[in-house]
Design brief:
This protein has about 230 residues and is of the alpha/beta class. The protein folds into two domains: about 25-40 and about 110-220, HAD superfamily/HAD-like (Rossmann fold, 3-Layer(aba) Sandwich), CATH 3.40.50; about 40-105. It has 13 helices and seven strands. The chain has a five-stranded parallel sheet, with helices on both faces. Helix 12 links the parallel strand 6 (about 185-190) and strand 7 (about 205-210). The termini are far apart. The relative contact order is 0.17. The structure holds magnesium ion.
């Protein structure tokens, strides 16, 4: 058997013309928030209490919405998150409950240029994965709204795993989910958070810091991925 493999390797023939072209990755892994879906909690909370109260709530370091949100992304249920918030900050009841009630408004829009990249890669049969920090209770709102989420072979949702980026543990979850196709060092990873990009690089992923769809397209082309140059 080994001899056969060696023989077939020897018979692989002369180098192809594109021998010096980069070898394309086996799969591409996308972050969702602010890479494919623009997310902003202000409009969701403003729908409940108006823009001024929403801004004041989100700026209140004593509540610390970012930390509250991170705990939800890392596996806390929204029921529990709301219970904890209302116990410590009862005067923010409308703000806190308004976030889930109007969550759809926080998904401001799809980032069309990145969705176009996703569709082109899918048409070229590049395996696609997502690795997102998202509350398990709120992720169904995204699935309901963005039909192109079906283009992913698999989506790792932090809230379902109980651990969020940039914790190295979630990259171990990703490794399990892609291993039938590739190792992490054969995958490209795209994220708008520098901390997540650093954590991804430490696991062997070829990580790209997302700054906009035009840059991303050129970065992926430079890595040999099958995308068109835009005029
Ligand atoms: Mg993001």
């Amino acid at each position: 058997m080994r001899d056969d493999l060696a023989a077939s390797a020897d018979a692989s023939g002369p180098a192809r013309d594109d021998a010096w072209a980069p070898r394309p990755a086996d799969a591409v892994v996308f972050d969702l928030g602010n890479v494919l879906i623009r997310w902003d909690p202000v409009p969701a909370i403003a729908a409940a209490v108006g823009p001024e109260r929403a801004a004041a709530f989100l700026a209140d370091a004593a509540f610390d919405f970012a930390a509250w949100n991170r705990a939800n992304d890392a596996g806390r249920s929204l029921d529990e998150a709301e219970r904890v918030a209302l116990a410590s900050h009862p005067h923010y009841e409308q703000e806190v409950l308004g976030y889930r009630q109007n969550f759809d408004a926080s998904m401001v829009e799809e980032i069309a240029g990145t969705v176009a990249i996703l569709r082109e890669l899918h048409a070229a049969q590049v395996p696609l994965f997502a690795l997102t920090n998202w509350s398990a209770d709120l992720f169904p709102f995204a699935v309901e709204r963005f039909e192109w989420l079906d283009l992913f072979e698999d989506i790792v949702v932090s809230g379902e795993e109980g651990v969020a980026k940039p914790d190295p543990e979630i990259f171990e979850v990703l490794e399990e989910r892609v291993r039938h196709l590739a190792g992490l060092d054969d995958c490209i990873f795209v994220d708008d958070s520098p901390a997540n990009v650093l954590a991804a690089e430490a696991t062997g992923l070829d990580a790209i810091l997302f700054t906009g769809p035009e840059h991303l397209r050129e970065d992926l082309i430079a890595r040999g991925m099958p995308l068109r140059h835009l005029p």
